[in-house]
Amino acid sequence: MMENLQKARRNGDTKQALLKVNIAGVELANPVTTASGTFGYGREYSMFADLNKLGGICVKGVSNVEWKGNPPPRVMETYGGMLNSVGLQNPGVDYFIEKEVPFLRRYNTKIIVNACGHSVAEYEAVCEKLNEADIDMVELNISCPNISEGGKAFGLDPEAAKEVVAKSKIKLTKKPLMVKLSPNVTDIALIAKTVEGAGADAISLINTLLGMKIDIYKKTTPFKNKFAGLSGPAIKPVALRMVYQVHKAVKIPILGMGGITTGEDAIEFMMAGAAAIAVGTANFRNPRACEQILKEIEEFMDKQGISDINEIVGIV
Amino acid sequence: MKKYLEAAITSTQKISDKIYKMDLSCPEIAKSSEMGQFLNIYLDKGEMILPRPISIQDVDKDKGVLSIMYLIAGKGTAYMATLPVGYKLNIAGPLGNGFVYKNYKKIALIGGGIGVPPLYCAAKAVLGKYPDLDVEIRAYIGFRDIEFVNLEGEFKALGVKTLLTTDNGSYGIKGNALEAFKNDDFAPDCIYTCGPYGMLRAVANYAMDNNISCQVSMEERMGCGIGACVGCAIAIKKGEDFTFKKVCKDGPVFEAQEVLWQ
Ligand SMILES: Cc1cc2nc3c(=O)[nH]c(=O)nc-3n(C[C@H](O)[C@H](O)[C@H](O)COP(=O)(O)OP(=O)(O)OC[C@H]3O[C@@H](n4cnc5c(N)ncnc54)[C@H](O)[C@@H]3O)c2cc1C
Ligand SMILES: Cc1cc2nc3c(=O)[nH]c(=O)nc-3n(C[C@H](O)[C@H](O)[C@H](O)COP(=O)(O)O)c2cc1C
Ligand code: FES
Questions:
Q1: Which among A5, A160, A251, B233 is most buried, taking Cβ atoms within 10 Å?
Q2: Which CATH number fits domain A2-69+88-214+232-312: 3.30.70.100, 3.20.20.70, 1.10.10.1100, 3.30.1490.20?
Q3: For the residues of A79-143, what is the DSSP string, one character each?
Q4: pLDDT tens digits, residue range B206-234?
Q5: Is any ligand 1 atom within 6 A of the Cβ of residue B45?
């Protein structure tokens, strides 16, 4: 560790060397990434923030063909959080690879692609294309409803999760496969172990918690799908607990997320076992949240005399 | 160029119990603001995590001041009304695509409630930018009740003929803004409209039936407000089909015939 510090100091880039983390063979310059769906494909935020400062950008979910998404309203604020029912609107993987990847590649950051599908075949199709694309990692979003099995999300059923991960893994010969877990299960460790067994190289969590809103004057549910995904500071303690449980259950690295808004939040997730973290809803509240969080992580390390961020991963 | 910056409140004004005005010093955003664009107002309250989208009501590019006018609609706008002069807020802007001026000679502004402020911004911008074109602008502005009336005097000061209505007749003509427009003898090349959905739909349908070009400023719940989250979807026609576009980035102003009205 001291050796690292000295080597880094000699190279004149103290902070960078000490912030480097590795997820399934992909080296991130620092542990701060963006959570899928909250950062688009990076373009919009590039006007407000320096994308080069991000360890990685995880883009909005892409499917094998264009998805229209859900009718409005799609978002609503809650106390300390928000509900969303975007329905994975996206232009499809071909458009993404052609138009968005070259833009993202201009920045010195890693590209993580959130992939979604309504059937195992759709996941396979999108993974097959991403395998050949100029990206760094695939994050399999297994929270999509499995249309061929009646709409239950893949990530809620260990058997379905196992199948979709194993089959996607076969297609992804050149890219590491991270699997994103849904928190809407009774035993998160069981799902985590299952996807590890099925060949996942890393795990990310948590996706949104299933929530609901009722319009008491109209006596209706404003979201067409009735339920919507809760994110933001309100879910942080739940997310942290799940990262901790998964860390105890698997050996593969974890990308932790759920309500992270400050550097201290990020440190908590890393101490619970996350090798890196993702910032989601906090980007809405502050378009420069990621930079701010990174700065606060560095300050914490300085104050606490932590020379390498990897030291604290899973320390609790 | 969109910017995310700190802006100091330079003045606040209570227009009525429900409506407030705030001036923000932010030269960098003011200088590139166009009519019909909006700002994200970031509230530094822990439990309120989403920015509030508020239209630009007025811009003074020389002084670098942006004005907004807002209705107390909930806890965020109620909080805004408590902020004192000198307080610094984070804002992002100018956001979205606003109204477009295409050599129109006559423009009708049809506004409802808190949809009126961006129309004032448009009137001032067109008259200010093209003083030699002799553009005639008339404003038809409707409110639920006298409590919600705003900007009547300001329109008149611009030399814009203004017809004001209230639903209950508590002030101005009893009725609504579209009726006031229909009853007036004015044949515009274009209508700019902003207000509640029902009014926008009625104005859009009337404009389409009468072959008047019409630009509508739409409203939708927003997440990021800058085009990244696809939270603010609106159905836009695409041949026989439709596609969801973003109010915050592709709009808020759309052509009336583009919108798939519900
Ligand atoms: C493009 C655009 C321009 C706007 N311009 C103005 C303006 O110039 N003046 C003005 O008074 N209002 C304007 N609004 C509406 C304004 O954004 C809402 O009234 C405001 O966000 C309410 O916030 P709140 O915290 O007081 O209400 P709450 O109900 O407490 O807010 C909760 C959440 O719902 C959202 N929300 C509530 N009502 C609306 C609404 N009608 N539209 C969109 N989001 C809403 C809030 O942003 C917040 O995220 C505009 C809306 C849009 C989309
Ligand atoms: C508007 C919105 C859109 C999202 N879209 C996706 C998505 O496309 N794919 C995905 O795996 N997760 C998606 N998520 C979930 C986030 O990536 C993240 O897991 C979750 O919001 C928790 O983190 P946060 O509390 O920091 O936002 C979305 C979240 C939000 C708020
Ligand atoms: S509010 Fe996020 S895309 Fe419009």
A1: B233
A2: 3.20.20.70
A3: TTEEEE-----B--HHHIIIIIHHHHHTSSSEEEEEE--SSHHHHHHHHHHHHHSS-SEEEEETT
A4: 999 999 999 999 999 999 999 999 999 99
A5: no
